[in-house]
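Reply to dn_fold:

You asked what the input looked like. This is it:
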Amino acid sequence: MEFQGKALKFGANIDTDAIIAARYLNVSDPEELARHVMEDIDPGFKARVSPGDIIVAGPNFGCGSSREHAPIAIKASGISCVIAKSFARIFYRNAFNIGLPILESPEAVDGIEDGHLVSIDTSTGTIVNLSTGMTFKAAPIPPFMQEIIQDGGLMAHIMKKGRR
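and this is what came back:
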């Protein structure tokens, strides 16, 4: 899978409450969650994000509670992928479960600034900062996990497999 978009950069330890505040945990509609994603740490986030954009963040992205609301809100906002120095373990699993591709690459995070244009190939783990020409590597997303993402998440993938 290949993605290209503008980088929206965040720092370290962005927790799930910063991604989607607890006051929205009674909301299940992804579009409604998307209206409030990152609003407490970046009130202008929703206005800045365009479909296909990429979040770039420091270490421990998605720490905190194990709410699936966080990756759902990110994906529904139009973000195509998240690159971070590292992810909290539960966020990592939840992201793939809902079909949000994520890559770990400390070097890419250090080499990408807010607003840079970024290209990603998840099958090779290649990340290119199109604004600077720099290329970075991440571990490729395995083919079976790419299928889950392409199918829209784990539940959609299971349903699709059951119809075969």
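Residues 89-98 form the longest helix (10 residues).
Hope that clears it up.
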